[in-house]
Structure formats: structure tokens, C-alpha cells
């Protein structure tokens, strides 16, 4: 074992790369169990990150389980007690289902939100260090055994650990370093994201989380902290055209103009700051565990923002990872078995919402069956609650499209949209094809896909020369 000159060397039970949602949740759970955890983040915290931030009740419940809910609520975002969705000429309002007694959503800007999470991890006993960029993982034979990092002054350090947790987002360095960056399932989004903050109007309904569909466009208004409202538009992916200065502004404004009710919602509001954009998005599953490493959060699995699931899942799978491994860190065989089972559970629990999300991310106008769903939900509060429950993760998409309900929706679409029968019939056929394809993906690509990929080749001594080693 040869250390680089000037390398500071430390030991910890677990080193976590990334201090936001997944990283802080993992670290909090491990530190609460008495484990020695060091969290490294390249960023200066508190700081913003490219993300909108609607939290369904399940996300808030996760905060409660971590002990971070009070700190997040103290940031002052209003409780959103009503979900409103409008499309195809129908507007549907619904209450949020309760998770752990929390029956509201919130939209909290990431700077304060992530800081509250990191502070929770510190309060639990984790060491959180900022401005440390991890550049490589260390190997001990075939096991991941730590990380190498560089600090803001250019000093190199190494931390040896029994487990390396890559909670370092979509462009994960750890995923690259362990050879897991190529997803085993990827679905490109049909939508781009553009968002901006507005100072909300004095008479605005600040308890409503609203979404509108207009043509192929989708737009939202979520009241958030500091008297602001976050407005995200997700127009279909625009191929070609520039990406230069002013493009995001142009595309955001153009999308707003195509969604008149959203423009109306923003009347009397004043724009604050620039438009931010996220394009070229894809949803994916990566192999997320191996000997001595794990990837909770976006590093291992990502869903298009259209259903706003990412923060909840990063918190949930970060926490459950920490809880699952805390007692087995000293036994590599038991640790790897627990990691494999943790990854398997995530795939099983996330695959339906993954398919559901990808359909909404297609960047198309509402289809006849969707329009019928909205129409039926106007007069059927149970149906509206069921649909909201899918986003809130209290209900499953399979509960919506039971054979009986699918038949009822099909019959309703044929009755209420008889001016366009060919479109309704084509949509029915497509729905059947899509459902069959999703089932096939679940049975094949996603079945048992947990840590079965090629493990890194064993080596005899501690080294950074791992397969897919990445120096950032
Ligand atoms: C446009 C957009 C809108 C979204 N809207 C929503 C929404 O409304 N609701 C929702 O729930 N989710 C939303 N998401 C998803 C959500 O942002 C993510 O799921 C969530 O941030 C994942 O958290 P994470 O901890 O895995 O990663 P991140 O939040 O990405 O944090 C990763 C951290 O790792 C650090 N890091 C990276 N590389 C290194 C390195 N080499 N060394 C050290 N540190 C490193 C980074 O500095 C960063 O702090 C959205 C995403 C996008 C892109």
C-alpha cells in the first residue's frame, strides 16, 4: 500500500460522497446507529442545486423519520393542502393522502432544505465536510475500500472505509469509479424543464399545488418559502435550435404563453431571478451495489422530474440503506448480502412509478384515456384521491388501471369523445401495447437485477486503479 505524497489518511466506518438528500439521509441513519461516518461534498454548503422541489406527503414523512421535518418546516414554506390538475377541459381538485399523519405537500428551496438535512446528519453525529471533491475510489482486492479526494486548497486526502456510499447525483463519480455509470435501463425524457421563481401575488391561493396540461405542454405553480411561487414548465424536447444565452428565457416564456391558465395564475406576480433549465434528461436504473459500495439517490436511480419523486426516494433509500447496513459493516459477507437485498427492494418498489413517470414524460398532448380519467375524476372524489395517491406513493398505478376500471375508462372515452373515435381506438390499442411492454421490462430487465453485474477484478493490495476509475 503506497500513499501519495502529502496524502492525509483517515479511517471511518462509512464514507459518503454527497451531502444533500441521499447522502445526509444515509449519514443520519448510520450516525444514529453509532457508526463513524464522514460525508464529503464538493460544494460549499448551504448552496442551491439544479432541482425544483415539490415534496409530496411521503417526502415530508421521510423528513419526519430522519428528524429533519421541524427544521424544514421552519424555513417557512406554506403547507399545500390541495392538489389541482387541469387538462382536456377538466379541472380536478383533491386533498393529499396522509403519510405518517402528514396530509399536505410542501415546496422548499434546495438551499435551505439541503442545509437542514446536512445539519440533521451533523446533529446525529456524522462529520460533514464541504469543498472536498472525490476523485477516485480505493480498492482492497475486489472490495471498494475508501475514497481519494482533493480539498479547496488542492490538498489530497484519503479515507479508508468499510463501505463507500456514492450519494453524488446523476453524474456520480463513484458510479463511474466502480464501473456502474452505464445504466442497465434508460428511458430518455420527451420533455425539457425550465423554471423560475416569482414573488407571489397577495391574493394568491398559497395552499394549492397546481398543474396544467395544454396541448403537449405541462406547467406547474407551487407556492414555496419566502413568499415565492415556483413555476416549472415542461414543454416537449426541442430538437435543434440554439442553447445560447437567452434560450432558456425564450423557451420558458413561450411555454408560459401556450398555457393560459398558468399565465393567469402568475398575474400580479413578479419574476425573481433567471430561468433555469434542465434538458437532455433520462430516467434510469444503474447497478447500485457491489462489494463495499452502494449508490442511493440519483447516483443509482433517477426518474424524470414530471412526477416529483426524486427527493423522497433519495431520502427513503438513503435512510433505509443506512439502517440496513449499520449492524453488518464489520462482516463483509453479511454486508454484501444486505446491500444486494436493499438494491432489490428499491427496484421492486420503484419499477411501477418508473413506468408511470416515463409515460407522463413523453412530451405529448393528453391522450383520450387521460382526458377521460380527468373527466371521470371531476365527479368521483375516490378516483381523484387514487390518482393523487399514486404521486404520493400511497397507492400503486396498478390500482388505477385495474381491468374493470380500464374498461370503464375506455367506455367513457368512447362515449364522451365520439367525435374522434379513431383516436380513442388508437389510444386503447396503444395503452394495451404500453402495458404489455412495461410488464415485459419488469419481467426481464428489472427482474432480479441486483448486483449481478460483473464485479471489479480482485487485486492484492489497496489501490486506486479500479476498473472505470475516474479522476475528476
Ligand atoms: C430539473 C429538476 C427538477 C426536479 N424536481 C424535483 C421535484 O420537484 N421534487 C423531487 O422530489 N425531486 C425533483 N428532482 C429530483 C431531485 O433533484 C433529485 O432526485 C435529488 O436531488 C437527488 O438527491 P441526491 O442526494 O441523490 O443528489 P443531489 O441532490 O444531486 O446531490 C449530490 C451531491 O453530491 C455532490 N457531489 C457530486 N460529485 C461529487 C464528488 N465527486 N465529490 C464530492 N461531492 C460530490 C454534489 O456537490 C451534490 O451536493 C428534480 C430534478 C431535476 C433535474
TrEMBL record:
Q: What is this protein called?
A: Flavin-dependent dehydrogenase
Q: What GO molecular functions are on record for this protein?
A: FAD binding
Which Pfam families does this one have? FAD_binding_3
Q: Give me the ranges of the annotated region Disordered.
A: 436-472
Q: Which residues form the FAD-binding domain?
A: 12-330
- Please tell me the species this chain comes from: Nocardia neocaledoniensis
- Domain of life of the source: Bacteria
The record, for SUPFAM superfamilies, names: FAD/NAD(P)-binding domain
Amino acid at each position: 500500500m503506497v500513499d501519495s505524497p502529502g496524502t492525509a489518511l483517515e479511517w471511518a466506518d462509512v464514507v459518503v460522497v454527497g451531502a444533500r438528500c441521499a447522502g445526509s439521509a444515509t449519514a443520519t441513519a448510520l450516525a444514529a446507529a453509532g457508526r463513524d461516518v464522514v460525508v464529503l461534498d464538493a460544494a460549499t454548503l448551504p448552496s442551491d442545486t439544479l432541482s425544483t422541489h415539490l415534496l409530496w406527503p411521503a417526502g415530508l414523512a421521510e423528513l419526519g423519520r430522519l428528524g429533519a421535518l421541524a427544521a424544514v418546516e421552519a424555513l417557512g414554506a406554506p403547507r399545500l393542502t390541495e392538489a389541482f390538475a387541469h387538462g382536456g377541459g377538466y379541472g380536478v381538485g383533491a386533498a393529499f393522502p396522509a403519510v405518517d399523519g402528514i396530509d399536505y405537500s410542501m415546496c422548499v428551496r434546495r438551499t435551505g432544505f439541503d442545509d437542514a438535512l446536512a445539519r440533521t446528519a451533523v446533529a446525529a453525529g456524522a462529520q460533514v465536510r464541504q469543498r472536498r471533491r472525490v476523485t477516485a475510489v480505493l480498492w482492497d482486492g475486489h472490495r471498494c475500500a475508501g475514497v481519494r479526494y482533493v480539498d479547496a486548497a488542492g490538498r489530497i486526502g484519503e479515507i479508508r472505509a468499510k463501505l463507500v456510499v456514492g450519494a453524488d447525483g446523476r453524474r456520480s463519480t463513484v458510479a463511474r469509479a466502480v464501473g456502474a455509470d452505464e445504466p442497465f435501463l434508460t428511458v430518455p425524457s420527451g420533455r425539457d424543464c425550465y423554471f423560475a421563481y416569482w414573488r407571489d401575488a397577495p391574493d394568491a391561493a398559497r395552499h394549492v399545488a397546481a398543474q396544467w396540461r395544454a396541448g403537449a405542454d405541462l406547467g406547474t405553480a407551487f407556492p414555496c418559502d419566502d413568499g415565492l411561487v415556483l413555476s416549472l414548465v415542461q414543454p416537449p424536447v426541442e430538437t435543434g435550435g440554439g442553447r445560447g444565452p437567452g434560450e432558456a428565457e425564450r423557451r420558458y416564456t413561450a411555454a408560459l404563453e401556450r398555457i393560459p391558465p398558468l399565465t393567469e395564475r402568475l398575474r400580479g406576480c413578479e419574476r425573481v431571478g433567471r430561468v433555469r433549465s434542465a434538458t437532455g434528461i433520462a430516467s434510469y436504473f444503474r447497478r447500485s451495489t457491489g462489494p463495499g459500495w452502494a449508490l442511493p439517490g440519483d447516483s443509482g436511480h433517477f426518474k424524470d422530474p414530471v412526477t416529483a419523486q426524486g427527493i423522497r426516494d433519495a431520502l427513503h433509500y438513503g435512510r433505509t440503506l443506512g439502517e440496513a447496513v449499520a449492524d453488518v459493516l464489520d462482516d463483509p459477507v453479511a454486508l454484501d448480502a444486505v446491500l444486494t437485498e436493499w438494491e432489490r427492494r428499491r427496484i421492486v418498489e420503484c419499477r411501477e412509478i418508473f413506468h408511470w413517470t416515463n409515460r407522463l414524460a413523453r412530451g405529448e398532448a393528453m391522450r383520450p384515456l387521460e382526458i377521460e380519467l380527468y373527466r371521470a375524476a371531476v365527479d368521483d372524489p375516490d378516483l381523484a384521491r387514487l390518482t393523487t395517491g399514486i404521486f404520493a406513493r400511497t397507492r400503486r398505478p396498478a390500482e388505477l388501471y385495474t381491468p374493470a376500471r380500464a374498461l370503464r375508462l375506455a367506455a367513457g372515452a368512447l362515449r364522451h369523445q365520439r367525435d374522434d373515435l379513431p383516436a380513442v381506438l388508437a389510444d386503447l390499442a396503444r395503452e394495451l401495447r404500453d402495458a404489455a411492454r412495461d410488464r415485459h421490462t419488469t419481467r426481464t430487465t428489472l427482474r432480479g437485477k441486483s448486483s449481478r453485474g460483473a464485479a471489479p477484478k480482485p487485486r492484492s493490495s489497496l489501490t486506486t486503479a479500479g476498473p472505470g476509475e475516474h479522476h475528476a
